[in-house]
Amino acid sequence: MDEQALMGLNPNADACYRQRALAYFEQLKESLDGWEVCAEALAKGVYSDDHVKFFCFQVLEHQIKFRHGTLAAAQQQLIRETLMKWLQAQLMNVHPEKPFIRNKAAQVLALTFVMEYLTLWPKFFFDILNLVGLNLNGVDIYLRTLMAIDAEVVDRDILHTPLSLSVRSQETRRNILIKDTMREQCIPALVESWFQILQTYQHTHSELTCQCLEVVGAYVSWIDLNLIANDRFVNLLLSHMSMEELREEACDCLFEIVNKGMEPVDKTKLVESLCQVLQSAGFFNIEQEEDVDFLAKFSRLVNGMGQSLVLSWTKLSKTGDAKVSAETLRAVEGKVPLMLQLLIHEDDDISANIVGFCYDYLHVLKQLPALSEQQKSNVEAIMLAVMNKLKYDDEYNFENEGEDEAMFVEYRKQLKMLLDRLAQVSPELLLEAVHRVFSATMQNWQTVQFMEVEVAIRLLYMLGEALPASHGAHFSGDTTKTSTLQSMMRTLISCGVSEYQHSSVTLEFFETVVRYDKFFLVEPQHIPSVLMAFLDHRGLRHSSPKVRSRVAYLFSRFIKTLHKHMNAFIEDILSRIQDLLELAPPENGFPAPLSSDDQLFMFETAGVLIVNGESPAERKQALMRSLLTPLMEAFRMLLAKLPQEAGEERQAVLADCLSHAVGFARQHFLILLDLSKELKSETGFIFYLFFNKILHRHLKMAKTHTQKKTTLTKINISRKYKHKIKMVS
Fold first, then answer.
1. 3-class secondary structure per residue, 471-534
2. What is the rounded CA–CA span in Å between residue 101 and residue 96?
3. Which residues pair with 590 in a beta bridge?
4. How far is residue 481's CA from residue 568's CA, in Å, rounded to a whole number?
5. Is the separation of the CB atoms in 577 and 534 below 8 Å?
6. How crowded is the C-beta side of 96, counted as CA atoms within 13 Å?
7. Could you tell me which residue ranges the Exportin-T C-terminal domain spans (predicted)?
8. Contact predicate 147/106, CB 8 Å
9. How crowded is residue 615: how many other Cβ atoms within 10 Å of its Cβ?
10. Which of 239, 352, 526, 562 is deepest in the core (most CB within 10 A)?
């Protein structure tokens, strides 16, 4: 082999050596017999450098993957002999190869198996088992090879090289044939080897034992379950559940056994027998378990058992066999107490892993003609658990949300799905429970922790989607529902909770107000107090930029819905938000109260108020002028400053600010055109003249600075409005 080229395989090698190594690799791949040099090096253990060994396996892998069919019989035999000689050498090594070498060797063995098992090497597994026996290094390679074979033949989640439909179909047929042949010829021997490995190394080599458990879990989905689901194997797995180093992998293995596709009656028997054994061994006493990582795995196992029973019940209920179906339903009900314990666990991962079973159980209850008292009690227990688990904890970082916070947000989404399902099972019970929690919290919000207050308002917010309503009409129709929602909204607005000093509570208050904006059509007397909350330190003047930004958007939505009720407040609102519409670049690192996007919502809000107001046209024109004149003046001033700035960074800041000004005015114009009943209406005409007279004069000036490559070149009004402008001019 080219020794100098091999020097380039070292990650610390110079670029020229690395380039030479790459070229040598391509040369060996393209050569018809160059790979044989690599095969000889592996068989004889010529090189001790790990990177060279990996390189040799890569060359061999390429030949097997892309040229195996064109190799002569002697060359194919050479590949088999090379791999077995290399494997035999591993049995004698005091120090095993690095994991990345073992993984690559396993991949090459798996590829060879796929190519040759059905034709040239039917005794693949027997040859390997006879060679490695229970040798520690040999067993490790054997288990890695089994997982690599699973990846090649079974695992649908692993993406292989893109293939045409016909080739993919051939590959699928080949894989099915491989599995069928393995079932007939070698699976019992493989299962026996797994049992011997587990029994031999369970107390001395936990890592190897976990590897073997992973293999069992991977293969159990398509082999005869009786080979695994027997007293000998299950007792061994249960003993592993009591060993700290093995219990999590044993849990995963049992999950795969439970998850195996079976006839519903057989699946019910399997799950029930496994549950009985686990309960007898004390695993259901989770309050005594302190290992949260294990409990998360155990919760996933219980979830799998519960969902399997629900699926069996669903299938059996369709067959009309009432007796067997009822027995399966009782089996489902028997797991509910454990499910509830896991659902309310303080660790969110443990709770999240049982949500699937909980959701499916509620779906079962939804299909029943009537609920028993115990089932109603279960529904209420799930409801209380969901309400409790929705709460933030003390460690949630609202200012700098990271991975943990993102995971909790996803967990909350799962809980919301449960709440929606609860509403389908018993909407009256849910409404009553939320009303009870909400009212109790709002009565004492001044002395309650923020997470309690936030979740009480959040529950009211979530009812908006959980309870059915056409186009958000929650305040018409069913009197029980509407009166309860109105009562809660009345309390929310009047109890003063909008003053609570926590951003999560503040945001939830405004989100809920806007979700139920149609409440103010029924009780418009509450509009002034809510407007003040939007406009003062609770909303647009809040200390948190995050709150101000969200409130700007929510305020826009609120005004759009209720613009017909805003006539008495228009000028007061415009005067209060005037300073928030100022065009000003950030000075000395201090940002403006609102971002440019937020300001766009504020301009939109102002436009909606003016256009839909009941003022005479002259007054609307005056309001337009007071709204846009400061914008034009600031535009003129910044435009004059732009060529005077020497620094490119400062020029870019001013240019962005000017571009935003054009965007504000343009968007304002287009929104108002859309909102006008007719383009030739007096209001639309007045605003067009005002806009045309002031803004376009400055846009012509802005075009003289396009050589600065600023974003000011994007100032043309949308084409679809050109014909409208001609009409009104």
1. HHCCCCCCHHHHHHHHHHHHHHHHCCHHHCCCHHHHHHHHHHHHHCCCHHHHCHHHHHHHHHHH
2. 10
3. 587
4. 31
5. no
6. 16
7. 328-654
8. yes
9. 15
10. 352
d(CA 179, CA 187): 9
Residues 6+ apart with CB under 8 A from 92: none
State residue 245 phi and psi, 5-degree precision: -80, -20
The values of phi and psi at residue 590, to 5°, are -90, 115
SS3 263: coil
Measure Cα distances from 159 to 104, 137, 151, 168, 633 in Å. 17, 29, 9, 12, 60
pLDDT tens, position by position, 649-678: 666 766 666 666 666 666 555 555 544 443
Sign of CA dihedral 273, 278, 281, 284: negative
Closest of 407, 391, 596 to residue 502, by C-alpha: 391
DSSP 3-state of 587: strand
Across the strands, what pairs with 587?
A: 590
DSSP letter string, 298-367: HHHHHHHHHHHHHHHHHHHHHHT-HHHHHHHHHHHHHTHHHHHHHHT-SSHHHHHTTHHHHHHHHHHHHH
Radius of gyration of the chain (CA): 35
Q: Which residues of 684-696 are buried (b: 16+ CB within 10 A; e: fewer)?
A: bbbbbebbeebbe
Q: Residue 387: which H helix or E strand, with range?
A: helix 373-389
Task: Write down the residue that tokens 């044989």 correspond to.
Answer: 36
CB atoms under 10 Å from CB of 313, counted, come to: 25
pLDDT digits (tens, 9 = 90+) for 179-227: 999 999 999 999 999 999 999 999 999 999 999 999 999 999 999 999 9
Closest CA to 22 of 39, 4, 31, 9: 9
